[in-house]
Write a structure and sequence with these properties.
Length: 222
């Protein structure tokens, strides 16, 4: 699922921008478990900024009126958003968000696309889609979809990101199956392994074994 809509109006955006401008920003790697500088290069609005609750309130109130969003994600809870600023040279390489953060990821674009070059949010869901939305627009997608932010080559990109836990988690089995199917297809056929010892070291054989067991789960009658 990829859901795009206008979430914030100009007044809400101006309020958020003016509150963010006076705040403290820290290195974006602080919000991840590791400090892998090759993964991402951005700044994040420090959680200790006093007005972070006030800013988040604007977004939560907008979400409360976003009825399609509420219907699609069956929200159980949504975390306090992250505010991410990506300057020239900044990026976020391909990754999946951590399983514990939630079931649906949302990015709200806080400044206009003509203020920066690059900075596309690229999401893979069987095909790649690129999102560089007008200020106030948001995109929600299944947490677990591989995504990246392409390098910003001019200006500054400001977004807010948050995750929603759902009462009814999306279908991850189909996604796992799809990736496994693709993996099996991409692995080079190296010939049938002559022994079990070699078979269990052979990536193609292992992928095929897992894929076969997926089929078995749907074929077996109890
Ligand atoms: Fe992400």
């Amino acid at each position: 699922m990829i859901y795009i809509r206008k979430l914030l109006d100009q007044e809400q955006l101006s309020q958020i921008q003016s509150m963010m401008d006076g705040g403290l920003w820290v290195n974006g790697t602080n919000s991840t478990d590791h400090t892998d500088l090759s993964l991402k290069n951005n700044s994040e609005f420090c959680r200790s900024n006093e007005n972070i609750v006030e800013i988040s309130k604007i977004i939560f109130e907008a979400l409360d009126h976003d009825y399609p969003f509420l219907g699609k994600v069956a929200a159980k809870s949504t975390n306090v958003p992250i505010y991410s600023r990506t300057n020239v040279g900044g990026f976020y390489r391909p990754h999946q968000d951590a399983p514990e953060v939630g079931h649906y990821s949302t990015t709200v674009f806080l400044n206009n696309p003509n203020e920066y070059d690059g900075g596309y949010l690229r999401i893979y869901d069987h095909e790649i889609s690129e999102h560089k939305l007008d200020a106030g627009y948001a995109v929600t997608y299944n947490t677990g979809f591989i995504h990246e932010v392409s390098e910003v080559t001019r200006g500054r990109r400001d977004v807010s990101v948050f995750w929603t836990h759902s009462k009814f988690p999306p279908d991850y089995m189909t996604d796992i199956y799809s990736h496994l199917h693709s993996l099996r297809k991409q692995l080079m056929r190296t010939g049938r392994p002559p022994s079990i010892e070699e078979a269990i070291q052979n990536p193609e054989f292992m992928a095929e074994t897992i894929l076969t067991n997926f089929h078995r789960m749907t074929e077996t009658e109890w």
